[in-house]
Amino acid sequence: MKILYCASDQTVPGTTGGSVHVAAVADGLAALGHDVHVLITPGGELPASNPQWISMPPPLGLKQFRWTLTGRVRRLAGRLQPDVIMERYYNFGGEGIAVAAERRAVAVLEVNAPVIDYPGSSKGTLDRMLIVEPMRRRRERICAQADVIVTPEPSILPAVTSPAKILRLEWGADTEQFRPDASGPVPFERPAQTVAVFAGAFRSWHGAIHLVQAIRELRARGRADVGAVLIGDGPELQACRAAAAGLESVVFTGAVPHAIMPACLAACDVGVAPFDLDAHRALSLAFYWSPLKIFEYMSAGLPVIAPAIARIPTIVEHGREGLLYDPAFPGSLAAAIEALASPHHRLPLAHAARQRAVRDYSWAAHCMALAQAMEAARR
Fold this sequence. Notes:
The chain is α/β, with parallel strands linked by helices and 379 residues long. The protein folds into two domains: 188 residues, Rossmann fold, CATH 3.40.50; 167 residues, Glycogen Phosphorylase B (Rossmann fold), CATH 3.40.50. It is 36% helix and 18% strand. The strands form two sheets. It has a seven-stranded parallel sheet with strand order 3-2-1-4-5-6-7, sandwiched between helices. Helix 10 links the parallel strand 12 and strand 13.
């Protein structure tokens, strides 16, 4: 198949989950033999190979203007004659799906953020003030025009969406690169005998500060043998640094290239994903993420520590691939980290996590399922 992939608001290569997702899906579909052309905002040098990377950033670099690229996408599709046009959903997108409808190409919509408004949404309130709710109508039209909708959480789609077109699919990890034996230089020295790692965006709902607080609790109990490495950047980084003041066993690396993440994770012992649903009002709809960090932790052979909320218990089995804690219970995160400071307890979980990642959470498996859905829609 010839596939045109519209993800112009994503920077590739990049360090965010969206950037990694777009690059992995494009590479995975190309590895299956498909002719893949990807619209992105370039974040560095890109290889001149399949997939074909096409620079098409939104005007002025503003994602809110992504929809204005419709004419350019239409002209490009006229030259390429794609069988499938796939679009990564964004509130101000829709250009790929619109062009697919015009050309009678298979329209595939990736949905990783809510299409519907959460209760109390300022965007929803503004839309209702416009009487005819143009933004809601536009989003629903995009979903109606799609032949296949790929999402980890169907509840974030409009209620009128036909279940027959929904492909429920988690994200994944590069299980060939993320391995327990991955090696290479890393931007930190191990700060303690047992190292818990957080890797990702420092946004309030990612809960990185909870890991820092847990290490402080353990230190207060005399557990100087347990430390943490926090990898990434974002608006909560300074608050996390302030919370870690005086804790020499907590290390911050800042953002690092995704290419060295396998070695970074392999240099640690436990992967922590302390999501905080109360810190992000949109999550009142559902836990709609497909948590990239968890899949990469598992692929790297790290047992996972995460809250026992929403879909997470279906992704990580408590007591088998990691430990799930109750975030409402004070000290539960620290207790889980302390439990996995024991190699006797940790290593069987690490082995099971790696096995589960290879079996269920590889990008190769994700792309195979995606390609099969495309082929079915073509038929």
